[in-house]
Specification:
single chain, 259 residues, alpha/beta, five-stranded parallel beta sheet, elongated, nutrient reservoir activity, Acid_phosphatase_pln
Length: 259
């Protein structure tokens, strides 16, 4: 009788063990499903957010939303970002090839520097691709290394513009006094040679918005007699204000916003 009871108890224990294992599996499956649904929801939101950012419908913003981190990281690192640059540069080159240059040497083009000519992805990778607040001291230390790599597609554009005979102006918000030398060297080392002028922010423009500062510089360039045929930048503030040129071209950058 006792053996029979023990056997029954063993069967009951085995059944309970099976039920607990089954329940655990169901719970794990449910959690995984919820995670997948949450990830899909965040991905959809992040894609919409990035499109809205590029369309300049989200402004101003200080950091990338945390739920967009994986999306922006993947976008910047998987190759899609560079594919987008390639496509945009092809459009710019198609436009440039339709232009007839004069013989007076005053046909100009303007290119931004940071995340246009050269890339700061390595800095932003350490800042979770913009999810962490911008740190001017750390960013300056990064710049001072002189290791910003060229954006390959924009380097192709730069070379083509120089070859066509455009006078290319490199216009940046970097501080002239502290970053002028290292910026010049970095650009030279990355093959940006033959441009007309590198213009950095001088003391007279300190504290001014990017729109106001770059508008003033473009106005001065036109005041010298130059015709600005194209203007390329990764920030909308590169492409707003006065004396924008005949056409503007926005490069993608979902990592930060400059007003």
């Amino acid at each position: 009788m006792m053996l029979k009871i023990i056997k029954i108890l063993h069967l009951i224990a085995a059944g309970l063990t099976y039920l607990l294992a089954l329940l655990s599996k169901v719970l794990v499956s449910q959690k995984e499903k919820e995670k997948r649904e949450q990830a899909a929801e965040w991905e959809a939101y992040a894609l919409s957010w990035r499109v809205a950012v590029e369309a300049n419908n989200v402004r101003p913003w200080r950091t990338v939303p945390p739920e967009c981190h994986t999306h922006v990281q993947t976008y910047m690192s998987s190759g899609q970002y560079h594919s987008d640059l390639d496509l945009i540069v092809k459009q710019i080159l198609s436009y440039a090839q339709t232009l007839t240059l004069s013989h007076d040497g005053f046909d100009a083009w303007i290119l931004d520097v940071d995340d246009t000519c050269v890339s700061n992805i390595s800095y932003y990778q350490a800042k979770r691709f913009g999810c962490d607040p911008f740190d001017s001291a750390i960013f300056k230390a990064w710049i001072m290394k002189g290791m910003c790599p060229a954006n390959r597609a924009v380097k192709v554009l730069f070379d083509a513009l120089i070859e066509r005979g455009f006078k290319v102006f490199l216009l940046t918000g970097r501080d002239e006094a502290t970053l002028g030398k290292i910026t010049t060297e970095n650009l030279h080392n990355e093959g940006f040679v033959g441009y007309e002028r590198l213009i950095l922010r001088s003391p007279e423009f300190k504290g001014q918005s990017a729109v106001r500062y770059k508008s003033a510089i473009r106005k001065a360039i036109e005041g010298e007699g130059y015709r600005i045929w194209g203007n390329v930048g990764d920030q909308w503030s590169d492409l707003q204000g006065e004396c924008l040129g005949k056409r503007t071209f926005k490069l993608p950058n979902p990592m930060y916003f400059i007003s």
